[in-house]
Structures are given as structure tokens and as C-alpha cells.
Amino acid sequence: MKKLMITVIGLLAVVTVGLVFVWSNLDGIVKEAIQTHGSEATKTQVSVANVALKLESGQASISGLNVGNPSGFSEPNIFELGEISVKIDISSINENPIVIDEIMIKAPVVAYEINKSGTSNADVLKKNLGVSESSSSASSSSGEDEVKMIIRKLVVEGSKAKVRIAAMGGEEQSVSLARIQLTDIGKKSGGATAAEVAQLLSSKLLGNVKTSVAKLGVKKYLGKSADSFKKGALDKVGNAATGVGVDGAAGDAMKGLFGK
Cβ(253)–Cβ(229) under 8 Å? Predict the structure, then answer.
């Protein structure tokens, strides 16, 4: 009997220490989860600078959440999500799905690039998200009991895109992005996984970016290499040189190339 009591007390001590460790390291656990699931969803490196949780009030903040650029592009990150604030329904913390009242993402920066081969980083990331979506579905069907969430409102505002096109010399342009508001994410399906939320948000941001940068006339640079554009400009100059001054021909050719 004495040995049994010692064993039970020992087990309780181990469990208590474990709970204290989890509680005191909860911010780090959430940070690691974001990085892991985010990287799985985007197939790029996702990093987080800091996570601060206040479970007693149902509030959380995330800073320095960056989504790495796919390989083959110059900018280190395609998304820099700035400051993120979260309000959680504390009555759902021990449930699955967890209910999140609101997520606010303020002043994110998106780097949109078209490289020398005429490929955009947005299209590469979108393709990555499609691959991860199919693998996520397979994971869900295997019966794994993942933690899910319902997000009542998700807002992205004050965002802008930095645009670089190799065929234009890589000079940076900037364009403001429209506000995004999503509601009841995961409600119909009984909750969304972290990877599914990452996929949805990334897809919405990418769609927003492509709509906004279309105003800069970037579509004509997609699928064509920078060298082919340069050759086209030189051909225009050569063909026009017999009829007008070379300087004027060059100017007209460059205006036509950059849509000015």
C-alpha cells in the first residue's frame, strides 16, 4: 500500500510539473505550431518573432510573422504580416473547435515579383497551396484528431504590395491593397485546421494582390522572359531607325515595353 501511494504521488508530481511547463511555455508552443503548420501549408519557411497570450482575458498578439518567398525570387519574404491581434472566446478554450471572435492583421506588406523567366512568386505560392490542400485533405481523412477553430471575423487592412519585375530592371513600385474581411471561417465544416486557415488567408491575399497589381500592367510580363522583352525592344528600335531618329525610336520602343 505504501509503495502504491508513493507511485501515485510520483505520477501526480510528474503531471503537475508537465502542466506547469506547458503553461509557462504556452507562447512558445503556439509560436512553434504557427511556424510548423504555416510552413506545411505554403511550402516555404514561415517564421514568427513573438507570441504573447493572455488566456484569462482571451487575447493574443503575434508579431513578426513572415512567409518566405519561394526559391528563384529576390525578396526574402512574400508576406510580412506585421501586427496581429486575436480575441478568443475563452469559454471554448478547452473545446474542439476553439472559437475565435476576431483576428486583426494590420499593415502587412506583400512582395510581388516576376522573375527573369516570367514567373510570378504569387503563382508559385498558389501552386504550393494547391499541393498542400490535397495533402491536408488526405491527412483529415485518415482520422487524425486535429485541433480546429471557428473564426467569426478576420480582417486584413492597411496593406500594400511591393512590385518588382525583372523585365523592367527590377525597380520597385508600390500599390495599396484593398481591405479583406472574412467571416465564420470553418463554421459550416465544424472547424478549420491551422493549415486550412493558412491556405485560405494566403489565397485571399494572393487574389487581392493580383487584382491590385494588374493596374500596373504586369500581365504582359507573365510567361515571357526578360531577355525576350529586351530583344523585342531592340527589334522595335532597329525597325524604326530607318524612318525616325534613333533616339525617338528607342524612346517609343521603351514606352511601348513598359506600357507608358
Answer: no
Per-residue confidence at 99, pLDDT binned at 50, 70, 90? very high
Burial class (CB in 10 A: 0-12, 13-18, 19+), 158: middle
pTM for the whole thing? Answer: 0.72
Per-residue pLDDT tens over the stretch 232-258: 544 554 455 455 444 444 444 434 444
Q: Per this entry, what is the length of the chain?
A: 260
Helix (H, G, I), strand (E, B) or coil at 194: helix
Order of strands, sheet of 180-185, starting from the edge strand that comes earlier in the sequence: 50-54, 59-63, 83-88, 98-106, 149-157, 180-185
- Edge-to-edge, what's the strand order for the sheet holding 46-47? 46-47, 66-68, 77-80, 109-114, 160-165, 173-176
The whole-angstrom separation of Cα 241 and Cα 4 is 98
* 174 residue type, one letter: S
User: 101 versus 8: which is more confidently predicted?
Assistant: 101
Q: Which residues pair with 103 in a beta bridge?
A: 86, 154
Q: How many CB atoms lie within 10 A of CB 17?
A: 10
pLDDT value of residue 257: 42
Cis peptide bond upstream of 97, omega within 30: yes
